[in-house]
Write a structure and sequence with these properties.
about 160 residues, 3-stranded mixed sheet, Histidine-containing Protein, Chain: A, about 30% strand, alpha/beta, 5 helices, about 45% helix
Length: about 160
C-alpha cells in the first residue's frame, strides 16, 4: 500500500511539473508590438500591428532592401514570440525629374533623332510629338530613346508605322 501511495504521488508530481513547463507564459501582443516597433524605429513610415503573434508591417520604404530589412528586424525582435511576419510595405518608386525646358529638350531630341531621318519631331511644354514614317522594327528603339530624355510625354500617335 505504501508503494501505491508513493507511485501515485510521483505520478501527480510529474504531471504538475510537465504542466507547469508546458504552460510557459507567452508574450502579449502589446509587448510584442513594442519590441517590433523598437526594432524598426529607423523607418518612421512603417506601422506595426500584432495579432496572436502574427506581425503585420505596412507603410512605405525607399527600396526593396529596406523593405526586407524591416521584415527581418521584425522577425528577430522576439524570435519566440513572433509566429510570422506579413510584409505589406510598399516601395516608393524613385522620382524622375521631368525635363520641361523646351530648348534643352529640343536639342536633345534633334541629336537623338538624327539616326531616324524619316521622322520629324516637335517639342512643346515638355511633350515630344513624333510624325513621319518608321519601320516597325525601329519604333521601340525610338520610343525608348525619347523616353530616356525624361519629357512629360512622348506622343507617337501621328507616326505611320511601315
Amino acid at each position: 500500500m505504501n508503494l501505491r501511495k508513493i507511485l501515485s504521488m510521483a505520478m501527480v508530481s510529474a504531471v504538475l511539473v510537465s504542466g507547469t513547463v508546458a504552460c510557459k507564459s507567452k508574450i502579449s501582443d502589446a509587448d510584442l508590438k513594442a519590441k517590433v516597433e523598437t526594432a524598426i524605429q529607423s523607418n518612421p513610415n512603417v506601422q506595426v500591428d500584432v495579432k496572436d503573434g502574427v506581425v503585420t508591417l505596412k507603410g512605405t520604404a525607399s527600396s526593396e532592401e529596406e523593405k526586407t530589412r524591416m521584415a527581418d528586424a521584425a522577425k528577430t525582435a522576439d524570435a519566440k514570440g513572433v509566429k510570422s511576419v506579413v510584409n505589406n510595405i510598399v516601395v516608393n518608386a524613385p522620382q524622375i525629374e521631368v525635363n520641361t525646358n523646351t530648348d534643352d529638350l529640343t536639342a536633345k531630341v534633334q541629336a537623338f533623332t538624327k539616326d531616324f531621318p524619316t521622322v520629324q519631331t516637335t517639342v512643346a511644354d515638355g511633350i515630344i510629338t513624333v510624325t513621319g514614317e518608321l519601320e516597325q522594327a525601329r519604333v521601340q528603339a525610338l520610343k525608348m530613346g525619347l523616353d530616356a530624355l525624361n519629357p512629360k510625354r512622348v506622343d507617337m500617335s501621328a507616326l505611320k508605322v511601315k
